[in-house]
């Protein structure tokens, strides 16, 4: 049954039109489990009904013409209950409703399962039998499993389908929009640029074409060109490889024969598809057949078929796979990637970057944090949309809601540009008060620091407005190299940073790699990297790396008094004691060097990051051996809620406004203040307007954030009142749903005139 399940699901993925795919599922399922009827209904939330979209067994004329209300019939009951229903005689059930158009009078046995994706009912999948009987538990389990698998494919197919029509179809004029997860607030209008876009059948977007003769000619020309390329390759390796490898080229020549692939591809073209789509449909069918063969050698040929077809596709589309040079890039680019990385952003010209789209990731993934540090609007987790759909397209991006509009019409673009202009007016207004202190209306003074290490250009622009650096991510220089940086290289970098603002505190976090920040030259393969070898755990296991970094920090600070060292991912007191022992060892070594240079080495303050929940219960013990605390709210939220913040599937569960997270942050602030230990919060929550209000009310007076948020948070502080913030905190701490908390906080921000910071428009 597992083989049947995989084959049925794959059909959906490979069929470019959703209704055709559903029809194929109905036919395959009916054959696989030997029932009299299989039907698929999809939900229409705008009209509040389910529509029959595919059937094998009911009247074909009913497809697309029969709709069942969300509260009507057995289909509606399955949607309401969100669970399968198994009935031996459906017509006797009190919720049974007769629809003459479907012609189901002869059927009695009924089994239906909901198709659900991320808690939303997308449709209903049903089986029917003429004789009266209950479907078996195995049949029910199979249907539920198939429905679960179909849900993801339907979502992806619907996303692809919005872009699948050719320009000569009137439907193409409809607005194409996709939805992702807000990654960095702001609005952007630009041209999509996909770096290193590969020619691949799997990524190709199906399209129709009415010009059959031209498409057939294009296909034949591409095959001829591919045949010549294959012949050159075949001759080049003649006599240099075993016979079985050489035989692959014999297969290539066979597939390139007009009576092989060509005949079937041209048949698809006559059905109204363009040449590339026809090739995709035929080849993916071949790949499925090869992969289903029992012979291992034949199964491996699926890879060869795909490789050859990708060559044909590249020739067919006349694609130059090399990307645009920096000079050729549009003035306003929206960078699109499967997953954004630090190196990708570092290499892209900042002057042309106006927005980011990441297919993978969530609102608090490392990529989203980088986007916010750059002050660039970003949308993450845009699943189900191939990169090629967004390449070289006009795009409107809303980082507040996660919305993306592709190829907008003039009206939509004009309205969007108006919102961008309003956003700029608000930004200019905030910038006009950049020299004023971050003090509330009732005289509560906040110290605002910056999180640095991601982008020197951006951070230097705003650092003069900050009271210091609350977090310098030392791992970024490590990640940007092909080896560990030398002590000399680190000294030069750290010295430049420390001496830039010698009168302001500068907190350097020791190397924090692992999790979503791997080193390319130090691979770590772990089943659960976020609970694995990362942060202080890794550096204590490798004191040779830790000591070199600490020595570099200390040597860079000779003659200066602003260095503070922070230890990440602390779980126990013993880790801090061991780290302090190594720091003392390095200090005495560097102190001797400083004397020789007639310089003075001052002992830096040592602090710990509070991000592992265990340390919340060890603050009194830690307070005796450290100089300061710093809360890493990103990881603390992740660990408290047991949610991988990079996983788009559970991104809605990751929420710093969760009452448990707020309660933990409040408890930490109270303990730290009672213990008289300075405390800073350096997570993303500090850079959010609502987060600032709540943290201020909890007792946090030092907030460290990405530099781009600094002036915005100053504006928030100057607009707020501490007593009102405390009342708001007491109110939200009594709530049980993070959505209610967020709504209440946003309502407060609206009431004090800060609505433009949480949505588009003034």
UniProtKB/TrEMBL annotation:
Primary location group: cytoplasm
Top EC group: transferase
Record-annotated GAF domain positions: 17-164
Entry cofactors: Mg(2+)
PROSITE patterns assigned: PEP_ENZYMES_2 (PS00742)
Protein localization: Cytoplasm
GO MF term set: kinase activity; metal ion binding; phosphoenolpyruvate-protein phosphotransferase activity
InterPro entries the record matches: GAF, GAF-like_dom_sf, PEP-util_enz_mobile_dom, PEP-utilizing_PTS_enzyme, PEP_util_C, PEP_util_CS, Phosphohistidine_dom_sf, PTS_EI-like
EC number: 2.7.3.9
Keyword annotations from UniProtKB, A to Z: Cytoplasm, Kinase, Magnesium, Metal-binding, Phosphotransferase system, Sugar transport, Transferase, Transport
SMART domains, per database record: GAF
UniProt keyword annotation of Mitochondrion present: no
Highest rank taxon of the organism: Bacteria
GO CC, alphabetical: cytoplasm
Record's catalysed reaction(s): L-histidyl-[protein] + phosphoenolpyruvate = N(pros)-phospho-L-histidyl-[protein] + pyruvate
BP terms from Gene Ontology: phosphoenolpyruvate-dependent sugar phosphotransferase system
Pfam families according to UniProt: GAF, PEP-utilisers_N, PEP-utilizers, PEP-utilizers_C
Family indicated by similarity: Belongs to the PEP-utilizing enzyme family.
NCBIfam families per record: PRK11061.1, PTS_I_fam
Stored PANTHER family: PHOSPHOENOLPYRUVATE-DEPENDENT PHOSPHOTRANSFERASE SYSTEM (PTHR46244:SF1), PHOSPHOENOLPYRUVATE-PROTEIN PHOSPHOTRANSFERASE (PTHR46244)
Protein name: phosphoenolpyruvate--protein phosphotransferase
